[in-house]
Design brief:
Length: 111
């Protein structure tokens, strides 16, 4: 496992699992080899050509029953300030990827 990171809301350290550890765990649970599991994860989540980013870019949400939904939300344009000059800067609307956990996952995490 990687060293704990600080959670921004509670300031409590939290552990993080990286892709390599996830591949090892999935390989041991499924009986597949690590190379195949890594290829599946890449096919799903690779930003350049993965299925999930591709569906989001096409304007479709990706729902995984019992786990959650990946979707894109549009952040409204806003006015900010350049910290060096104090000059107002217009920030355009931006598409932001989001994820909403499904009820079974929330229930498991909350007891």
């Amino acid at each position: 496992m990687n060293p704990p990171r600080t959670h921004p809301e509670t300031r409590a350290p939290r552990e993080q699992v990286n892709k390599t550890e996830l591949v090892k765990t999935l390989a041991s649970r499924t009986g597949l080899n690590q190379r195949d599991v890594g290829a599946v994860l890449d096919a799903l989540f690779d930003p350049a050509g993965g299925v999930v980013p591709g569906e989001l870019a096409a304007g479709r949400a990706v729902a995984i029953r019992g786990f959650g939904t990946f979707e894109v939300r549009l952040a409204a344009p806003r006015l900010a300030r350049n910290p060096r000059t104090g000059e107002p800067v217009q920030i355009p609307a931006q598409a932001r990827p989001t994820w909403r956990p499904a009820a079974p996952l929330r229930e498991r995490l909350n007891g």
